């Protein structure tokens, strides 16, 4: 199956994201990385679903993934946890009133 990589790259560029596509026996492996903070999401789209879709499913999925990435970045940030001190964690703002403005990782 022919895949126009350049066409799909132009979609993620407008979201300030980098696109990585790789063909495998299972399907098309899609990886999208934010250029701002390297936040990454991955998905494998099966060949079967690509073939039965009447629209360009690859394009649809890439757009959805970009939107999901942008949205989740608003809620979560990557960085150092103010509780355990570990860096490179997925963080959200602390749920405790007394600690307003501090960041907490998923493990704490
Ligand atoms: Zn922590």
Structure, briefly:
The protein has 108 residues and is α+β, with helices and mostly antiparallel strands. Helix content is 31%, strand content 31%.
Any overview of this molecule?
There is one protein chain. It is built from three helices and six strands, in the order αβββααβββ. It is α+β, with helices and mostly antiparallel strands. It folds into two domains: 1-75; 76-108, no CATH class. The relative contact order is 0.14. The site of zinc ion has 8 residues, from loops.
Topology:
Blueprint: H1 5-13, E1 17-23, E2 27-34, E3 40-46, H2 47-52, H3 57-75, E4 77-79, E5 89-93, E6 103-105
Antiparallel strand pairs: 1-2, 2-3, 4-5, 5-6
The structure holds zinc ion (ZN).
Mean pLDDT: 88
Give me the secondary-structure category: alpha+beta
Largest sheet: 3 strands, antiparallel
Number of domains: 2
Q: What small ligands are held by the chains?
A: zinc ion
Low confidence ranges: none
Report the strand count: 6
Oligomer: single chain
In N-to-C order, the SSE pattern is: HEEEHHEEE
**N-to-C span:** 45 Å
Spatial shape: elongated
Number of helices: 3
> Could you give the order of strands across the largest sheet?
1-2-3
Strand content: 25-35%
Radius of gyration: 17 Å
Helix content, binned percent: 25-40%
């Amino acid at each position: 199956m022919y895949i126009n990589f350049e066409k799909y790259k132009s979609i993620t560029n407008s979201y300030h994201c980098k696109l990585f596509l790789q063909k495998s026996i299972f399907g098309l492996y899609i990886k999208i990385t934010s250029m701002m903070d390297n936040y990454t999401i991955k998905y494998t789209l099966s060949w079967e679903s690509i073939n039965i879709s009447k629209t360009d499913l690859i394009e649809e999925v890439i757009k959805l993934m970009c939107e999901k990435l942008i949205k989740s970045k608003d809620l979560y940030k990557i960085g150092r946890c103010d509780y355990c001190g570990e860096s490179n964690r997925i963080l959200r703002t602390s749920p405790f009133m007394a600690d307003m403005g501090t960041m907490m990782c998923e493990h704490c």
